[in-house]
Amino acid sequence: MYRQIILKDSDFQRIVWRDSPFKPIQDFRLTRIAYGTASAPYLAVKYLQQLAIQEEQNFPLASKAALKDF
Questions:
Q1: How far apart are CA 57 and CA 40, in angstroms?
Q2: 3-state secondary structure string, the chain?
Q3: In terms of pTM, does the model score above 0.70?
Q4: Crossing angle of helices 40-54/60-69, nearest 10°?
Q5: Structure confidence by residue, pLDDT tens digits, 30-70
């Protein structure tokens, strides 16, 4: 579920990497919720709750079910 949630391009989580000491450091920004982070379960549930609230007018039954279950 976490990999399906897109984060806005921000500095939420970055990875710095280089293949060898002779290559320059590369900087990567994660745009998905990463497995294993302490906040991942909270962010996933909060995202589903917010989506249910935003789409309540279009999908009232689904919204109610999502808010009840999450």
A1: 28
A2: CHHHCECCCCCCCEEEECCCCCCCCEEEECCECCCCCCCHHHHHHHHHHHHHHHCCCCCHHHHHHHHHHC
A3: no
A4: 150
A5: 888 888 888 889 888 998 999 999 999 999 999 999 999 88
